[in-house]
Amino acid sequence: QVQLVESGGGLVQAGGSLRLSCAASGSIFSFNAMGWFRQAPGKQRELVASITRGGNTKYEDSVKGRFTISRDNAKNTVYLQMNSLKPEDTAVFYCAADRFGLLRDYSGVDYWGKGTLVTVSS
User: What is the reported pLDDT for 34?
Assistant: First the structure.
């Protein structure tokens, strides 16, 4: 069973930065796409960023230019660098993996991490 373990969340002031990490128990090269979702209180879980095995990336409009997703196949880890954070970015961030698809939404997710909380204060 594949495990995804997130780390790097915490409390940061608006305008600050955080880097989230998602370490997989196996080779991330086995997944066609990986990504990050977030869920704010009272809101639906939404896809923030995704990256394919080939390195193609996709971002939700509100994070374009601020967040960067990357992957290190040697370390079996996916990262989410978050800059210029805003209070509305406050959410639990979840790592996700899609074995065969492009991870366009949560219906394609085969594996989830347990999440890491990001809190941005104003």
Answer: 96
